[in-house]
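In this section we turn from sequence analysis to structure. A common task in structural bioinformatics is to predict how a protein folds when a small molecule is present, because the ligand can shape the pocket around it. The inputs are simple: the amino acid sequence and a SMILES string for the ligand, here magnesium ion. Study the lines below before reading on.
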Amino acid sequence: MTKGPLSRNKLIDRVFKITALVATVVGLVFLSVLIIDILIDGLGRVSWSFLTSFPSRRPERAGILSAIVGTLWVMGLTALFSFPLGVCAGIYLEEYAKKGVLTKLVEINIANLAGVPSIIYGLLGLGIFVRTLALERSVISGALTLTLLILPIIITTTRESLKAIPFSIREASYALGATLWQTILRQVLPVAMPGILTGTILALSRAIGETAPLIAIGALTYIAFLPESVFDPFTVLPIQTFNWVSRPQKGFATNAAAAIIVLLLLTLIMNSIAIYLRHRFQRRIKW
Amino acid sequence: MDRRSRQRITEGCIKGILFICASLSILTTIGIIGILIFETVEFFREVSFFEFLTDPQWTPLFVDKHFGIMSLVCGTALVAFIAMLVAIPLGLLSAVYLSEYASARFREVVKPLLEILAGVPTVVYGYFALLFVTPLLQVLIPGLAGFNALAPGIVMGIMILPMVSSLSEDAMYAVPMDLKEGAYALGATRFQVAVKVVIPAALSGIMSSFVLAVSRAIGETMIVTIASGQQPRLTLNPLVPIETITAYIVQVSLGDTPSGTLEYRTIFAAGMTLFVFTLALNLMSHWLKERFREEYR
Amino acid sequence: MVDEGVFSILKLNAWYGKKHVLKEVDMTIRANHVTALIGPSGCGKSTFIRCLNRMNDLIPDFRLTGEITHEGMDIYSPEADPIEIRRRIGMVFQKPNPFPKSIYNNIAYGLRIFGVKDKKRLDKAVEESLKKAALWEEVKENLHQNALTLSGGQQQRLCIARAIAVNPEVILFDEPCSALDPIATAKIEDLIAKLKKDYTVVIVTHNMQQAARVSDFTGFFMLGDLAEFDVTEKIFTTPANKLTEDYITGRFG
Ligand SMILES: Nc1ncnc2c1ncn2[C@@H]1O[C@H](COP(=O)(O)OP(=O)(O)O)[C@@H](O)[C@H]1O
Ligand SMILES: [Mg+2]
């Protein structure tokens, strides 16, 4: 080969490398601009009274109290339902189910469920919880809908965490005359738990930002009271945000930005807990 | 031994409970399909399937009702197309960069940061598309309407970028080292190895990630609901307001539509359409991924 | 040999899927003696020993035919309960596998799953089994320390203590020293020699000196066949089978 094409190739390689680097960084630049834009728009509006006021027709007096309380209700119930259900389902599929055609089908089914658009879950919730079970547009309908939505994620993380436990631990337990359930409950699950918790919190942090399925089941966009039981109507932060974004007045857009800041903070806190858990326990156990 | 029989009963009960939890996922699928089919069948009692597919207008909420899903499908496809125009090149390039050029440290820092993009609630992106990207684009494109397909399309593209990037990177990472080494031994540059060896070898895995991204894009709701308007329109013009299937469902849900009415059923017919498309795409992505896995076993 | 053995194995055949790994094995294992199993790697020693307490049940495509009776009971008969069997026939594995818990909880686990809650009884069992496993002096101050912080040899003795704690009749060892240094190995060997007073011991080893040192009977496996089984001294001095002689004199394997 002569020197010419070689250096041309090198040049192409250089140019390509820079292009690819730029492409990689685009997403990060976008993220920073988004965060800065929202902070500029909304930070001035975040205040104690904003956090503790009900929504109002006058943007400067409106707040997110009912949205925050609604979010806490819905998320609390969602966690309460989805964690045990998802973990139990994961345990069954990983530890009990025979590896056959049926199990394979269930696996494909779960993978597909994870890809079903969230709005479709809203229609499911509307059809089953709101209408058929007549739970109406209540906190519990919302929580059940979100539970079904994140269940596939929790099942999958549970299975992955269980799979990561070395077989030797199980062997040791069986060799002492432990039953399958004793082995799972006392040896496998405790070791797998940090991984399962991490996955669950990440799933919940996804649920906290969900808007579409809750609108589909008819969560209200304007609520000037707090839910007192799980059968009361509710709103949540993303829905309140959506409501404000869709109004033309500038003041409401500012409120939306402020609500987004609170929402992002909540998600950030949940993600940090998850990451903390993962690191903390990863280091502790060495095989 | 008595102890053991009691233990056995407990074990059996526990297994039963676990099984019930696991079957919930099947019930969810049955529930989704059941509800959609039930309401859709009711819908087609009143609206002909032919009209549904061929009528150019979708105006179920007007006095002069038309039920042509194509204008919603068109809006959905338009936004998804724009999103893919953003996500595919950027995702593929960043996947190549991360798998072939970047240092381990760079990857370690940048990958989780990119993942954050996928974790931002979509209503936030909607806000950003409507109140930041659209005004910015209006400076560049004078004819751009306040609601349009372009801005939400771009923002959605960035949102699904991490998915394309990380799934493609996984596929490229799985390409056996000896294939690459063979090419390097012949004096190939990284660019040549990436384009001539790695991408072709990982193609079905990469395609799988694209298809999954399309599925994600057409199912995305809040960005388009907020930023693309609510005007079903059979157009490929990205500069005017349109409506997607998902945005339509939200639009109806926001009103107080009594169950059992035709308006109520339109959202299920629209939902069914959406479900069929996403399911087909998800299965296709799954199939491509399996094929990729088999190639490298 | 008379048939007063705790185990009698008759025409045992075993498969992983289609792979035939044990062929027509007959053996009698005597109570309160140490029986060693030797042979080149891959000849089926582990498979054999894991048949004795039904550990192979855990492997999906494993299958066996033939009969194994333990104290007169066919352990593969439909009435036999693998949980009960494993309780009576303990096992120590090649790689030490303590639970990622405290030393105390490692040992108490076997009793707890059997329903023992009484703290005094647990304390006593922990102390006694650690003493029998010759580990008590080293760890008595740190019973609540994580077991994974122990050295390899200590971990293996902990695993032995853990097996002893549930008071089994038989203890199976599958190459218990292959992951340990010579000093730790010597300690375990001493221990095994003492254990036969109270327990029946079966030990797989690839180390011929070890078999010669600790065992009363030795079985030599070759490609899934039990090529020879006899009193240890006889195996190592006047083997009947040419293959055995080649193996123990180090001509192959
Ligand atoms: N879980 C398994 N699945 C399939 N084959 C196995 C499995 N375990 C062992 N084998 C095979 O069975 C034969 C006997 O193995 P093993 O009993 O572990 O031999 P040893 O302990 O004497 O080295 C070997 O050929 C091994 O490859
Ligand atoms: Mg072995």
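Residues C 16, 19, 21, 39, 41-47, 59 surround adenosine-5'-diphosphate (ligand 1) (CB under 6 Å). As an exercise, try to locate the residues that line the magnesium ion site and compare them with your own expectations.
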